[in-house]
Amino acid sequence: MSEAAQTLEGWYALHDFRSIDWIAWTAADDEERGLALDELNAFLKQWQSVEDGKQGSTAFYSIVGQKADFVLMHLRETLEELNELETAFNKSAFAAFTIPAHSYVSVVELSNYMGQPGSDPLQNPEIVARLKPILPKWNHICFYPMNKRRQGNDNWYMLSMDERKEMMRSHGMIGRKYAGKVKQIITGSVGFDNWEWGVTLFADEALQFKKLVYEMRFDEVSARFGDFGDFYVGNRLTEEKVAEMLRV
Ligand code: 76R
């Protein structure tokens, strides 16, 4: 058996994709819509205070195209907290105007491919900060799930640790070229959801997603071993932006 990569886990993640029930929303009266919007804003404030207390983080983005209208990406210390906040939101008047489009459950993950042998990563504040990241407030989000292939000669899980390390080094070098332009959060979902990882990217310029993902396609880890699910891309929502989006 090949040596398994060691992983460090941080906050649990829920990507909650919703569509808006536009028929119900436009048929509702001003008062109903006002109450629903106030409730949404109260949730946004509550999630912000959790983030201010460094107990979790939430990102709120629109989604372009028909797969969903928006995504709430929540990070929390436990799976129970994620479940509670999801249920609380579902009971709100605003959520009653939404239709579930997709969801993804995972946990922030760092693997030891690039780690320094002999050091305790959990004593390193930079690593701890990466395991419990405050999500950036950048203009755009991109999310997609992925697997590492397990087929014939292209079986990632049959490679030796050294072979995988070498390929991950090359992967990391490409990624580093996008430092400051794209922020990646890798969440592991083996045992939690349908794919092995969720890839969440943030950027101020949406084109950087295309450039980064395309460049990686030529790198062996992605070219030989990457299998990808649906891509979701969108724009940052603030209280003002969501009010504008929902104005009828
Ligand atoms: O953690 C680190 O920064 C060290 C290097 C590194 C690891 C270990 C790294 C760097 N990644 C790692 C692990 Mn990554 N990453 C992806 C995708 O679209 C595709 O082709 C793949 C989707 C992107 C766009 C991306 C970006 N990475 C992983 C893993 C876990 C693999 C495993 O354990 O087998 C996956 C699934 C994955 C996928 N990667 C980087 C980036 C970027 C931008 C970097 C540089 C980060 C930086 O240096 O700040």
Please sum up the structure shown:
The protein is α+β, with helices and mostly antiparallel strands. Helices cover 36% and strands 31% of the residues.
Low-pLDDT regions: none
Order of helices and strands: EHHEEHEHEEEHEEHHEEH
Give the averaged pLDDT, no decimals.
Answer: 97
What's the story with the biggest beta sheet? 9 strands, antiparallel
Radius of gyration: 19 Å
- Basic shape: elongated
The rounded distance between the terminal residues' Cα atoms is 60 Å
Tally of contiguous helical segments: 8
DSSP strand content: 25-35%
Bound molecules: ligand 76R
Organism: Paenibacillus artemisiicola
Enzyme class: oxidoreductase
EC number: 1.3.98.5
Cofactor: Fe-coproporphyrin III
Report on this model:
The protein has 248 residues and is of the alpha+beta class. The chain starts with 6 loop residues before the first strand and ends with a helix. It is elongated. The chain contains 8 helices and 11 strands. Ligand 76R binds next to β4, β5, α5, β8 and β9.
Which descriptors apply to this entry?
about 250 residues; about 35% helix; heme biosynthesis; binds ligand 76R; two-stranded antiparallel sheet; iron; 11 strands; alpha+beta; elongated
Q: Topology, pairings included?
A:
Layout: E1 7-20, H1 22-27, H2 30-52, E2 56-62, E3 70-76, H3 79-90, E4 98-111, H4 125-131, E5 140-148, E6 150-151, E7 154-155, H5 161-176, E8 182-188, E9 197-203, H6 207-217, H7 220-225, E10 226-228, E11 232-235, H8 239-246
Antiparallel strand pairs: 1-3, 1-4, 2-3, 4-8, 5-9, 5-10, 5-11, 6-7, 8-9
Function: Involved in coproporphyrin-dependent heme b biosynthesis. Catalyzes the decarboxylation of Fe-coproporphyrin III (coproheme) to heme b (protoheme IX), the last step of the pathway. The reaction occurs in a stepwise manner with a three-propionate intermediate.
EC number: 1.3.98.5
Protein name: Coproheme decarboxylase
